[in-house]
Amino acid sequence: MLDALIELAKDSSTTKRRQLVDHVTELFAARAHKNRPEEIATFNELLEGVFDTLDEDDKQKISERLSNVKATSANLAFKLAQENLAIAKPFLERSKALQDAHLIQIASTQSQGHLLALSKREQLDASVSKKLVERGSKEVKKSLAANLGADMSLEDFEKVIKELPKQMGERIRHLRKSNEELIHDLFRDPEEIMAGEPLEKKEARIDVRQWIAGIRQGHVTLNKAISQLAFEKNLYDVTVLLSVASGLDHTHVINMMIRYDSTGIATLCRAIGIPDGEYALICKARCNHLKFPESTGSKWVTNYHVLDPTDAKRLLGLLKFKLQNRQAEAA
Asked: Which residues have CB under 8 Å from 72's CB, separation 6+?
């Protein structure tokens, strides 16, 4: 297969180049997750090799098909991100192949349309946000302020928050402040924060490892498992499942579960798609563990109803990013 593609790349005709782009991007998007380094390297080399000779339609096809493929080479990603906005937009908004140095250079040199697309990325480092604040139009700064996955210095945040209607600005300020407090608390000893008793592993009718195996094999859904365990008030095993589903360290999920507030656990649950009904069962079990009245759980559920999934995903992404940075600094 690779040999045939390499031979196709040697033909300089427009038709053959178009066929090459079509075949390579289709295969790349379908097979990147299989982690075959030689194959991935060949795909990238073929596309990089012909890129400068391609017309806009072919570049558009590459951008649309590979914007969610992390294995795309940084060089190819950077080339696509500097094209006209129609071609660049998918990569500017979504590609994880772009490095922060690339993003800063794009934010420093490209059009306001490019900057607006950058401001919508799921996650932005504070250094990139700073450049967007410096060069961005009012529309760019408004988009950046509303992006809960964009890390920002306090100074830059105060600048962009002025671009928003007061009610929206206060809402975003509250969400960001709650997230910062949560991150701070996750690195403190549980005894030092406002939290309930530690969770204990308890005997269960179905071992949590069986639930995990069943979910992975498609025999049961995560929501069904969460529902059953929460109904049994088995919060420890609920945290195990939430940790696996979110990719967040189990210790951090436990700390979220026993905190007296619901910010962290609500964000995590909404981000991974836990429905309102299952979340209500978690709240009921939490109230039981924390010795809170059921009315507190009802308030948590009401707040969960209005928590936007996109906001939650971006907050969780920013949370993971900052936790990684904190852990790296502590190492």
From this structure: 28, 44, 66, 95, 97
Q: What is the number of other CB atoms lying within 10 angstroms of the CB of residue 224?
A: 14
Helix (H, G, I), strand (E, B) or coil at 211: helix
Give the model confidence (pLDDT) of 122-170 as tens digits: 889 999 999 999 999 999 998 998 888 898 998 999 888 888 888 888 8
Residue 45's SS3 state is: helix
Give CA separation, 258 vs 182, 317, 320, 324, in Å. 12, 21, 19, 22
Q: What is the DSSP letter of 304?
A: H
Give the tokens for residue 148.
Answer: 């809960």
Q: What is the pLDDT of residue 204?
A: 87
- CA atoms of 143 and 81, how far apart (whole Å): 19
CA distance to 63, 230, 303, per residue, from 256 (Å) = 38, 15, 16
Task: At 156, list the tokens.
Answer: 């830059």
| Domain locations along the chain | 1-98, 178-330
What gap in Å lies between CA 82 and CA 60, rounded to an integer? 12
Cβ-based neighbour number of residue 13 at 10 Å? 8
CA nearest 80: which of 116, 134, 39, 44? 44
What is the Cα gyration radius of the chain? 23
Q: Which residue has the higher pLDDT, 301 or 184?
A: 301
What are phi and psi for residue 234, nearest 5 degrees? -95, 75
Give the Cα separation of 155 and 140 in Å (integer).
17
